[in-house]
């Protein structure tokens, strides 16, 4: 009888350990997916030398291709106030782009959100991923 109780306890420890390892693996994959999406947005803005309608269309296409959740999944969440001017947000996907002016030119800050879909914690588990573009120099000065 004693070994049966000991084996049950050991099985429970193994199951908890496997579940924790899977949760860590899944969260790291989702987080890396968010970083890839953020890096693609930053590179599109840098290649277009700004955030305009053409850049918005390219960003929406990239986010659709990568499987990023649509704006409706974020339940009317708004971009937080940060340094810089908040530029127009996309209607299809939830990400924030801020314009920051410097003496040399302008750079853009990008914030994209990762949301983990766990039934009881879905509203709580949203994490921002931030990034900045290089300075886009104003050559007309």
Secondary structure elements and pairings:
Blueprint (H helix, E strand, L loop, with lengths): L1 H47 L4 H14 L18 E2 L8 E7 L3 E11 L10 E7 L3 E2 L4
Antiparallel strand pairs: 1-2, 2-3, 3-4, 3-5
Helix pairs in contact: 1-2
What does this protein look like?
The chain is built from 2 helices and 5 strands, in the order ααβββββ. The protein is α+β, with helices and mostly antiparallel strands and 141 residues long. Strand 1 and strand 2 form a beta hairpin. The radius of gyration is 21 Å and the shape is elongated. The mean pLDDT is 80.
The parts where pLDDT drops under 50 for at least 5 residues are none
- Gross morphology: elongated
> What is the CA-based Rg, rounded?
21 Å
- Counting DSSP E segments of at least 2 residues, the number of strands comes to 5
Task: Quickly count the helices.
Answer: 2
Strand content: 15-25%
**Overall pLDDT score:** 80
Structural class determined from secondary elements: alpha+beta
Compressed to H and E, one letter per element, the order equals: HHEEEEE
- Work out the helicity level: 40-55%
Q: Give the biggest sheet.
A: 5 strands, antiparallel
Distance N terminus to C terminus? 85 Å
Outline:
Helices cover 43% and strands 21% of the residues. By secondary structure, the chain is an alpha+beta fold.
List keywords for this structure.
single chain, 141 residues, alpha+beta, 5-stranded antiparallel beta sheet, 2 helices, elongated
């Amino acid at each position: 009888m004693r070994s049966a109780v000991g084996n049950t306890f050991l099985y429970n420890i193994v199951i908890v350990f496997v579940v924790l390892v899977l949760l860590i693996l899944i969260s790291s994959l989702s987080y890396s997916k968010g970083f890839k999406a953020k890096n693609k947005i930053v590179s599109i803005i840098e290649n277009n030398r700004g955030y305009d309608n053409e850049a918005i269309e390219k960003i929406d296409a990239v986010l659709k291709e990568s499987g990023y959740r649509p704006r409706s999944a974020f339940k009317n969440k708004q971009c937080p106030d940060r340094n810089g001017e908040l530029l127009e947000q996309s209607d299809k996907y939830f990400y924030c782009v801020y314009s920051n002016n410097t003496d040399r030119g302008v750079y853009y800050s990008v914030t994209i959100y990762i949301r983990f879909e766990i039934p009881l914690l879905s509203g709580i588990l949203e994490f921002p991923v931030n990034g900045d573009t290089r300075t886009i120099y104003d050559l007309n000065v």
